[in-house]
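input
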Amino acid sequence: MTVPAQRRTPVSAQDYREAMSLLAAPVCVVTTRHDGQDWGLTTSTVTGVSLDPPLVSVSVARSASCHGALSRAPEFVVNVLGDHQRRLATRFSTRDIDRFAGGEISVLPGTELPVLTDASAHYLCTRQDVVAVGDHDLLIGELTDTRLRPEASPLAWYRRAFHRIEPYD
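output
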């Protein structure tokens, strides 16, 4: 006879936030153009999903101001930030401002999509799916182009602060 597993109570929101703060993550700004307007947000939830086809996921809170645009736009760009772009990361996480003001924005050649000019990498993605998970949606995108600057020093998010990543000697 099989004994049913005991249902455990989920951790509190505060305990969850504290636990997740211990996961170092890259800092990215996801951008798109939808209905003639540029949209973007800062995130540390970009994850590689599949090699064949090349897929990434981006977690977007349904409460985010650009959730609707990102979940409907046929394409989006993941801008991987360098450590020199902390100010941009902060700007794209601030509500009720023009996130695209400031001159560090250009258009990805061959598209109408906004990109952060000096990003360490740009991943052009075609939206494949939007999956509802809890209070967020996962945008699943297939990489259709990459622009890489591997010499750039990455920006990371850890314990609720920005960090520079440097290799050991």
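quick obs: The first strand starts at residue 25 and ends at 26.
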